[in-house]
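User: Can you recover a sequence for this backbone? Please restate the input before giving your answer.

Assistant: Of course. Working from this structure:
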């Protein structure tokens, strides 16, 4: 039993060179999810897959991903009306402080020191995601639901202010994120990342928040910081090409596709994170 939908920029009809073509498949078995994912991925779509149990759990937790789908998803198949019924019953939470705290700490952990090309782009990708999540969560607590990154920046800029240079840098994070995920080499400057981080402080009013948070990260934040550490050691294109039998390849595959992380206890297991770090240190040298 399957449900399929298109969402994101494609559903909003606002695609540009940096947009993903997002497609969601929900099913009762891993095999049907794998088959559906393969079919759409080969046609250039970015496919997310969840079981009925996983997507129901997200709805129970008030995940804003469900609100995103409720507002924008174009359902193209829905056996037994499972997905449409779930969306009709879904209600967002009133409090997203845990999600906010996690994204804030991730954003404030990013270095502004001299970075090589790939760590700089990875940091830009992380910054883009954290800024978007912070904006979405803060507005959701006010009863406003905006999910497009550029729409969020425009909304936040109307409420607060930053310099034109920092605002342009915030918008440019999309291009840096796109280049990182596509492994493209271009002429990006570290100044853009630094300006974007300053712009985020202005628009999100972060200047009163401690720069060195001590709270334990969630699984997702642990995963992104592990990714940044690995990319600081070796070109991500090398990690992409590792043999499937390489112990580091398994970890890298999880890092690059963390869509199921809420249901994967190992992501919050510090021993697992430490073991991946140990493998990387042994192979590429400790920092």
């Amino acid at each position: 039993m399957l449900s399929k939908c298109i969402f994101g920029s494609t559903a909003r009809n606002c695609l540009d060179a940096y947009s993903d073509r997002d497609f969601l498949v929900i099913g009762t078995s891993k095999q049907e999810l794998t088959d559906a994912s393969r079919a759409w991925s080969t046609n250039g779509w970015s496919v997310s897959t969840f079981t009925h149990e996983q997507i129901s759990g997200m709805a129970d937790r008030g995940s804003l991903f469900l609100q995103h789908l409720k507002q924008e998803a174009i359902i193209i198949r829905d056996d037994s009306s499972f997905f449409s019924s779930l969306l009709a019953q879904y209600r967002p939470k009133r409090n997203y402080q845990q999600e906010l705290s996690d994204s804030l700490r991730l954003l404030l952990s990013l270095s502004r020191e001299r970075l090589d090309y790939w760590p700089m782009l990875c940091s830009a990708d992380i910054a883009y995601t954290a800024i978007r999540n912070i904006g979405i969560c803060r507005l959701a607590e006010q009863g406003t639901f905006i999910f497009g990154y550029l729409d969020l920046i425009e909304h936040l800029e109307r409420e607060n202010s930053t310099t034109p240079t920092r605002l342009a840098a915030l918008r440019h994070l999309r291009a840096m994120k796109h280049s990182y995920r596509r492994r493209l080499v271009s002429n990006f400057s570290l100044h853009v990342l630094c300006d974007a981080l300053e712009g985020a402080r202005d628009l999100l009013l972060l200047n009163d928040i401690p720069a060195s948070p001590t709270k334990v990260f969630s699984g997702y934040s642990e995963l992104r910081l592990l990714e940044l550490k690995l990319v600081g050691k070796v070109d991500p294109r090398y990690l992409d090409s590792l043999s499937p039998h390489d112990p580091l390849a398994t970890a890298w595959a999880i890092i690059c596709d963390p869509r199921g992380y809420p249901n994967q206890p190992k992501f919050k297991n510090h021993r697992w994170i430490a073991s991946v770090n140990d493998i990387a240190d042994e192979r590429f040298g400790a920092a």
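That completes the design. The longest strand covers residues 2-7.
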